[in-house]
Structure formats: structure tokens, C-alpha cells
Design a protein that fits this description.
six-stranded mixed beta sheet, seven-stranded mixed beta sheet, alpha+beta, 19% helix, 321 residues
Length: 321
């Protein structure tokens, strides 16, 4: 059986940065030169507006299947039906199989009213409201996940925009312990969940809990910081055009990773070293954010028999093949 190999990226945020077009071109050029079976996009790609359909067309032009999922910023100002229509998705959570691997895509862009227990689609940055629990996986999606894990595939990978592990603030999925319980139950029955992968945190993180590896993929574009660390390194007109720029530390490279799954279930992740473009965390006096240590890289590592072994990053975006 040939290896399963895919490229993955997250949090391009095309509309929030002045070099979204450059990063998109870099990703398309890199992916076109890679021998991969498909591409996965972990959310927060762009505003889901007709004017941005060309982004999906550019990715599709690579000639490989592209699997999309919903991020919180995709849903900030648009109803979920609009976002699904933009991505040509019939449902926000779904699964697909490639060879012996079943990929399960989760959607935590829901919020639960604390008093009534009513679950609603996330919309309009409602996670800032104290009466809401967000991000959240509703009961019906948990039931669906449990059924998906009852399949007979040799290997499983869980994909989500929000972390299934990060306990910091409201970064990770609020009821992530319920998902972790389903994972443990599946593993006890002989299932092999090779990896849980997410974006959202704009950081590089690899955490192992029991037999499960939780991998947070760094953003393609930048790390965002609060107003406590705002900075003005660009021309005034550029800051006026991109108001979030004062909170952003741009990466020089468009970050992504390549994941290879071998016949025996070994997972090899080829990350890349990146650099900060104009400002760095050190320059601003911050080392951690979103519960993670800041870095402009994606780790390279291997998961074999539940053990993680890190390796040196050799690949950079401009010479990736």
C-alpha cells in the first residue's frame, strides 16, 4: 500500500493582511511542486464573499482535492449557511477516507447559552458574551463522532479548527473532555487515532495525552497579540487600510506542513522554519500567547507506536519539494 501524503495549512486570513495575495501565490506554487494526494485547509481562510471565490479556484487549480473546514473568523459576520455555500460544503462537519485512513472533520463554531443550554451557530464574535460557552461541540455532533469512530478503518485522524486539547481560556473546545473520552473509548476497542490536528491558536504545539497526539498547526500568516502589544511598523495608510496590523506579527514565509502516513501507521510531519518579518515577540517583550510559547515555525516530528520523536526542520517554503 502506498503512503498517504497531504499538505496542510491554516489561518491564512487573506483579508486581514497586506500580503495575502503573496502568501496565496507562495502556497499554490509550493503545493504544485509537492507529491501529495490532497490538501487540507484548517479554517480562517478569508471572508466568505463572492469576491474571494478566486482563492478557492487558485487552490483547486493545483489539481488535487482540497478539503476545507470552518474557522471562527469565517463565521464572524456571516451565517453558517453562507459560509457553507462559499466553500461548497453540504455540512460543516463531515468525514472522508483515503486508503486506510479515515479523516473526521469537526465543527466547533457553536455557542451554548449557559442558563438555557440552547446551542446556536456561532455568529458575530458572540464568544465575547459572558453568557455563552464557546467554542462548543453540540450533542448531535458528538453522537455523530461516536458513530464515525465505530467504523472499521485501520487508522483515524481528527481535524478541527479549534484545539481538542488547549485548556487556556476559551481557546480549546469547551467540552473537549467529552471528545477525549470518545477517543479513549475508541482506542480501548482497538481503534488507532493517529493524530488530532487543529489551527486557530497561531502557534506551534505538540502535546501527547495517553496514546493521542494533539498537534496545533501554526498559522500561515502571523501571530495576533492584544492591544497591550500594539505596534506601528508600517506606513500610516497601510495601518488605516488594515486596522488589525497593529496587533499582528507577520511571518516572512507562508507556513504549512506535509504529513505522511505509512502502511504501519507511522505519521511523519515535515514542518518548516519561519522568521518574523518586521517585529518579533522578543522586541515587544512577550513570549507566550493563547497558552502557547510563541514561535514562527512548524515542528517536524514522527509519531510511531504512540511515541513522538522530533527532528530538525530542513524545509523552507521557497525550496520545498
Amino acid at each position: 500500500m502506498p503512503d498517504v501524503r497531504f499538505a496542510v495549512f491554516s489561518d491564512l486570513h487573506y483579508d486581514l493582511i497586506p500580503d495575502g495575495e503573496t502568501r496565496l501565490k507562495e502556497l499554490v506554487a509550493a503545493f504544485s511542486g509537492l507529491n501529495v494526494d490532497f490538501i487540507i485547509q484548517l479554517g480562517d481562510l478569508c471572508d466568505p464573499l463572492p469576491k474571494n471565490q478566486f482563492i478557492l479556484e487558485r487552490l483547486a487549480s493545483i489539481g488535487k482535492p482540497v478539503y476545507h473546514m470552518l474557522g471562527n473568523h469565517d463565521c464572524d459576520n456571516h451565517k453558517k449557511e453562507e459560509v457553507l455555500s462559499f466553500f461548497h460544503l453540504p455540512q460543516s462537519y463531515y468525514s472522508f477516507a483515503y486508503g486506510p485512513v479515515k479523516f473526521i472533520v469537526l465543527d466547533a463554531c457553536f455557542m451554548r447559552e449557559r442558563e438555557s443550554g440552547i446551542v446556536r451557530d456561532y455568529l458575530g464574535q458572540a464568544y465575547q458574551r459572558k453568557r455563552m460557552t464557546y467554542p462548543y461541540l453540540p450533542d448531535w455532533e458528538l453522537d455523530w463522532l461516536e458513530q464515525e469512530l465505530h467504523d472499521t478503518y485501520p487508522y483515524y485522524i481528527l481535524l478541527s479548527h479549534h484545539s481538542l486539547q488547549n485548556p487556556y481560556g476559551n481557546r480549546g473546545i469547551a467540552n473537549r473532555e467529552e471528545v477525549q473520552k470518545l477517543i479513549r473509548t475508541a482506542e480501548k476497542s482497538g481503534k488507532r487515532i493517529l493524530l488530532c490536528m487543529n489551527g486557530h491558536d497561531h502557534n506551534d504545539s505538540v502535546v501527547t495525552q495517553g496514546k493521542t497526539c494533539f498537534f496545533t498547526l501554526n498559522a500561515t500568516s502571523y501571530i495576533w497579540l492584544s492591544d497591550d502589544f500594539e505596534h506601528f511598523y508600517y506606513p500610516e495608510e497601510l495601518h488605516a487600510q488594515y486596522p488589525m496590523l497593529k496587533n499582528i506579527l507577520l511571518y516572512e514565509e507562508a507556513l504549512y506542513a506535509v504529513v505522511t502516513i505509512s502502511e504501519n501507521g507511522t505519521v511523519s510531519i515535515c514542518g518548516m522554519e519561519g522568521h518574523y518579518r518586521d517585529a518579533s515577540p522578543q522586541r515587544l517583550g512577550v513570549s507566550r500567547w493563547n497558552g502557547r510559547r510563541l514561535s514562527s515555525r512548524i515542528s517536524s516530528f514522527q509519531i510511531k507506536d504512540g511515541q513522538v520523536r522530533f527532528s530538525r526542520n530542513r524545509r523552507k517554503s521557497k525550496d520545498a519539494r
